[in-house]
Amino acid sequence: MAKQEKKKKKETEQKGEEVAANPEVVEQGKQTQDALDDLLDEIDDVLEENAEEFVKNYIQKGGQ
Amino acid sequence: MNPLFGTETEYGVAVKGDGAPDPVSNAIFLVNSSPFVSLSTPLWDYENENPLLDARGFEVEGDRERPGPEYNRMLNKPLVNGGRLYVDGAHPEYSTPECVDARALVAHEKAGERIMEAALVAANRRKREMGVGFSVYKNNTDGKGNSYGYHENYLVSRTVPFDTLVAQMTPFFVTRPIFAGAGKVGSEHRSEACDYQLSQRADFFEVLIDLNTMVKRPLINTRDEPHCDMGRWRRFHVIVGDANMSEVSTYLKVGTTALVLAMIEQGREVKGVEIENPVRAIREVSRDLTLKKTLRLSRGAAWRAVDIQRAYLETAEAHFAQDVDPVTRDILTRWRQVLEALSDDPMRLSRSLDWVIKKRLIESYMNRKGCAWSDSRVQMMGLQYHDIDRNKGLYYTLERGGHVDRIVADASVIAAQATPPADTRAYFRGTCLRKFAKEVYAASWTSVLFYASDGTIKRVPLMDPHKGNQERVGSLLDASDTVDALLSRMTLPT
Lengths: 64, 494
Fold this sequence. Notes:
The structure holds two protein chains of two kinds. Chain A has helices spanning 2-15, 23-46, 51-57. Chain A is mostly helical. Chain B is of the alpha+beta class. Chain B has 16 helices and 20 strands. Chain B has helices spanning 23-32, 69-75, 102-127, 162-175, 177-180, 247-265, 278-287, 305-319, 326-344, 354-369, 376-384, 394-400, 410-418, 426-435, 470-479, 483-488; strands at residues 5-10, 12-16, 43-44, 53-54, 58-59, 76-78, 84-88, 91-95, 133-137, 150-157, 184-185, 196-197, 205-210, 217-221, 233-238, 294-296, 302-304, 440-444, 447-451, 457-461. In chain B, the strands form seven sheets. A six-stranded antiparallel beta sheet of chain B has the order 6-7-8-1-10-15. In chain B, strands 3-18-19-20 form a four-stranded mixed beta sheet. A two-stranded antiparallel sheet of chain B has the order 2-9. In chain B, helix 4 packs across helix 8 (305-319), helix 8 runs antiparallel to helix 9 and helix 14 (426-435) runs parallel beside helix 15 (470-479). The longest helix of chain B has 26 residues, at 102-127. Classes of the chains: A mainly alpha, B alpha+beta. At the A-B interface, helix 2 and helix 3 of A face strand 2, helix 10, helix 11 and helix 12 of B.
């Protein structure tokens, strides 16, 4: 993390007001986003199809 | 310090398909589908069961459970790991064997999920042709105002007055959901509406202290049924907790509670954290997702839940400063780290605590789909997070993808399904159930009963939870090839 911050600071100094996106951070962010997207795809695959009906019908007897 | 504890998990059951019978029949069918039990299962011995005794010093009227032998065998499946698979009311339930450390407890509780999952898979295979399918959930509510429990049981010396336990443990339990909460979409039981809260159970508590476990639930339960020598020990029966999927949540929930109780047993108390209205406070704690709000203490001050927990942590750190037990040290270290993270930004714990894992998952999903907390799919996710079928459960989807931290290895969980803990009476019970399967007539927490070759039933009492461990009875069991050989080597009370 420190390495990326240093890189970002250097770029800011070089370009003045304009801050260029640090490619390393962007790449890592994209990987995280891809992983998240993959996960959400998987969730969509396994989630009960008729959510509304399933949730409505899920009634339990009170337990301890 | 002689910690000893175990947990009970009531599971929720959903059924798809026509002509589904009543919940009790479903629960019985599930439990009897388990590949871990045989048709000729031993009975559960109800002799020492008496849930009508109240720790405040009286006994209430009521019927004691005494099922006939046939029904007994249908309901109860004593397990070779020393635990118990059974039907409690309308729910399938699993009790862990007695454990002495939180790591073993996690393994044995997870083993219970696997045992239940195997029963589920077998039951679904049997019912598939009829178009009937079950789902089983390790959670605590149906979103319709009905709750089922997760109970923790801790062995505590009777030298500690019950009043002390109530006073010392109430603020601890009211604030424990900040790391032990399983997360819940919406509110219940006529409580204040919310999108999401930390705890599944918080809305269901109506009084501070009572014997009841099913209606008007109390934060502190007074059931006095120790399943051991009543002169020495109490079984502190805790009903305020959530069932957790995350191993870290379970580990911290039980590990910290066991440490706090041990310290109280040894005379160390946490001062100045008594909460003015604990029943209201647990709902406030559950609804505060930023963990920044304060609770009113009896003495007038206003403290955040995380600071009340910190008072317990710091007292425990001081008290156990010389204790080198690795699990104790690990619990204290993690407790400190978790409270620090919760104090800063709870979302930092999105790999370890159920309520944070679940919240992050649901919010990501809502973001992508552009839907709100009230959407049925969000409510479905709140339920399916707890599905114990690893192909469908959302927690397990996350675990498979490497998105959550673990405490135990899969190999430990597999071992815990068939192997009892070595350091408690579960060792004797579980080993006998495995080794002498056909000759065990009945079992319970406090007994194993055998068919002796002379046609009588012989009862071996297990009144001390610390005895009957491998150290004391291991070689005796190893050297005995038959029940007669075993019994001849033991001096049984007449």
